[in-house]
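Reminder to self: tokens first, then the designed residues, so the page reads top to bottom the way the pipeline ran.
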């Protein structure tokens, strides 16, 4: 039996199919006095729409050269979608008319809704309620609409970049309509075609996540590009990203904003370490979303992936006619994390037989200025270069000619020889410009003739795109983690360090034993029973960071030292925090010897839910802020990836004579801490273990703190 969620997802997908593939459109509020109406109507001809367009105007008459219906109901035939361009005060009436006509897809250009404040938000809620009561799929309000380039369906209210590049494979989704236009314009200038261009605006109904979910199944779309200001449906976006990764459709995303979510995290460290932006960054790493920071990198990365797809062998061969460009490319490849291996001796020998006497067979390969005299040098050098067993992808730097005259001349011949060399090499290959430059129609024709994958990206953006494409391919090969059943719900609500450590122990996390004492004599007796040096820590529900106020003493041994330590801790804390309630003092065995202190902290993000941060712990957690983050639940394998991402990762493998920790044991402990936090339910604000002491023989929680929502 299908789940309700599956039925809802199918209904949503069907709704978007009806919208994005509409064959008849009503232009509600059509008037030749409006630039929006003029552009929207002109786009049907510009894009080659073959369906029917129905202007709707209260005054009737002729609008845009067609007879205008006075209402949607007066059109007199079924209509797939409506574009509402009426003033805000007329939207409700226009929507009711659209509903009466049985139109079940709407794009609302009109602004004046949630973006203007509380009153506008109430109007938007009423609009959404009207849409849902009639089963209407609503895009907007306050959006420019969409263009389905693949099926030639434009419900878009500004002029798109022309001419349309056929066969576009990148679906662009943006919460900002203007930014969607900027992305489309830049892609068009670079000769990179789009399959879709969608502005979601206020996202009263259709949001970015729903459009991504649609594009994952769209046959014309090979890559998805996003511009996000916020995320309105994080669970669906995460699920869609997982489906995209499984399907081999990369998602390249710009997300603006880096605000913190720490306000409700009480005094826990985790709130300052896990913020909105850092959680989104973690989501990208976890789900294979390629995050970029500018339109250029979005377009070039998506354009590269649309052309070369998944690259299995991620070792790069660099080729240029310039030694200086070769050196720049090598530097940028290293910065992008791309391996540029040395060539094998047989490859060097084969290249010596081809290159001029002054040429040197290296990777990067400078084919030398000899190619200016004999363009076939590219066609003769690329096959032996590409045959080297250490290479997986070839990147050759050469600007694409702009004009028909150049293409017919020597510059065009060089590109043709590069194309011949690429084909003969048997390797995936891409040609990159030396500096960022547009691609003309004549240039696109030459690329089609030579079957060359090309980016007019320049060296830096091009190598960055290759690095990101390689990282995405590597992430995809690791696969999408299998869904894990939620952990068994805990029936306790631990408060205080002692109870939290005991709870972690019950969930399979090794934790140091602690005993609460209320007098110096009890402290001494407990220490003697432990039979070695001890740690004393203040126990108070009002104090999270004990060491800051003298609430922790280490390595105490002997009755006198323990008794004196008890008195000193109590006196110090009472002087620093006289208002704090004191439960007593905790006594724990002192752990000596080699080891690394780690930090593991869980925080419930308001958008994405529970997330876990792992980093170097103890006093370094705030000083270094060196953490890796993932959404929960995590597997031990994912935690191993997190540990490898830390800037201080080399400390885990032994440093200056100290033994390496057991990373697998540490990862198991962190994964169990994450499961333990999930089991405590939504009232948990944060759960921290600091430090989690990792050694060559295992991992042990030495201190823990749970913070609860007082209203939960």
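Designed residues (712 positions):
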């Amino acid at each position: 039996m299908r789940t309700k969620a599956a039925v809802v997802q199918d209904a949503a997908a069907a709704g978007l199919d009806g919208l994005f593939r509409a064959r008849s459109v009503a232009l509600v509020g059509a008037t030749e006095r409006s630039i929006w109406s003029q552009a929207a109507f002109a786009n049907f001809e510009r894009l080659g729409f073959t369906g029917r367009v129905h202007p709707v105007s209260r005054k009737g008459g002729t609008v845009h050269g067609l007879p205008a219906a006075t209402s949607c109901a007066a059109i007199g035939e079924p209509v797939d979608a409506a574009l509402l361009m009426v003033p805000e005060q007329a939207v409700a009436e226009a929507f009711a008319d659209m509903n009466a006509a049985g139109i079940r897809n709407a794009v609302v250009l009109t602004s004046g809704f949630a973006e203007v404040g509380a009153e506008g938000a109430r109007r938007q809620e009423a609009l959404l309620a009207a849409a849902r009561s009639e089963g209407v799929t609503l895009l907007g309000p306050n959006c420019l609409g969409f263009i389905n380039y693949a099926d030639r369906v434009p419900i878009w209210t500004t002029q798109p970049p022309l001419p349309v590049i056929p066969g576009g494979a990148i679906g662009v989704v943006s919460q900002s309509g203007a930014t969607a236009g900027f992305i489309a314009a830049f892609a068009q200038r670079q000769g990179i075609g789009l399959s879709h261009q969608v502005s979601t605006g206020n996202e009263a109904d259709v949001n970015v996540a729903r459009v991504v979910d649609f594009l994952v199944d769209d046959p014309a779309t090979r890559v998805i590009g996003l511009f996000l200001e916020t995320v309105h449906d994080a669970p669906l976006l995460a699920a869609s990203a997982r489906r995209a990764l499984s399907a081999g459709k990369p998602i390249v995303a710009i997300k603006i904003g880096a605000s913190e979510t720490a306000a409700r995290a009480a005094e826990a460290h985790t709130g300052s370490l896990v913020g909105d932006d850092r959680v989104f960054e973690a989501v990208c790493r976890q789900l294979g979303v390629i995050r970029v920071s500018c339109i250029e990198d979005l377009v070039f990365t998506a354009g590269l992936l649309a052309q070369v797809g998944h690259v299995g062998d991620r070792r790069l061969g660099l080729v240029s006619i310039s030694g200086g460009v070769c050196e720049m490319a090598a530097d940028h490849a290293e910065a992008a994390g791309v391996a540029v291996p040395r060539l094998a001796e047989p490859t060097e020998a084969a290249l010596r037989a081809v290159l001029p006497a002054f040429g040197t067979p290296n990777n990067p390969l400078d084919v030398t200025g000899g190619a200016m005299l004999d363009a076939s040098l590219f066609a003769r050098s690329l096959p032996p270069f590409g045959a080297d067993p250490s290479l997986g992808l070839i990147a050759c730097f050469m600007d694409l000619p702009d004009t028909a005259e150049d293409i017919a001349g020597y510059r065009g011949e060089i590109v043709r020889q590069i194309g011949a060399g690429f084909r003969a090499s048997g390797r995936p290959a891409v040609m990159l410009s030396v500096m960022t430059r547009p691609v003309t129609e004549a240039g696109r024709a030459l690329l089609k003739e030579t079957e060359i994958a090309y980016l007019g990206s320049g060296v830096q953006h091009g190598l960055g795109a290759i690095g990101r494409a390689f990282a995405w391919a590597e992430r995809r090969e690791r696969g999408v983690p299998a869904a894990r059943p939620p952990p068994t719900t805990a029936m306790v609500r631990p408060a205080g360090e002692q109870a939290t450590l005991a709870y972690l122990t019950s969930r399979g996390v090794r934790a140091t034993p602690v005993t609460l004492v209320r007098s110096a004599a009890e402290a001494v007796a407990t220490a003697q029973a432990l039979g070695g040096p001890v740690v004393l820590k203040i126990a108070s529900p009002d104090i999270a960071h004990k060491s800051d106020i003298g609430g922790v003493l280490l390595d105490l041994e002997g009755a006198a030292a323990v008794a004196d330590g008890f008195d000193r801790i109590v006196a110090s804390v009472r002087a620093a925090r006289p208002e704090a309630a004191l439960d007593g003092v905790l006594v724990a065995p002192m752990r000596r010897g080699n080891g690394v202190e780690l930090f593991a902290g869980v925080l419930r993000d308001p958008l994405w839910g529970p997330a876990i941060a792992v980093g170097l712990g103890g006093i370094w957690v705030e000083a270094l802020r060196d953490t890796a983050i993932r959404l929960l639940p995590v597997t031990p394998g994912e935690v191993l990836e997190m540990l490898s991402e830390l800037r201080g990762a080399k400390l885990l493998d032994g440093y200056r004579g100290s033994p390496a920790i057991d990373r697998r044991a540490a990862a198991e402990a962190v994964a169990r801490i994450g499961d333990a936090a999930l089991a405590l339910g939504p009232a948990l604000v944060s759960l921290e273990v600091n430090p989690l002491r990792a050694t060559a023989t295992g991992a042990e929680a030495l201190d823990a703190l749970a913070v609860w929502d007082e209203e939960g």
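DSSP finds 24 helices and 29 strands in the chain.
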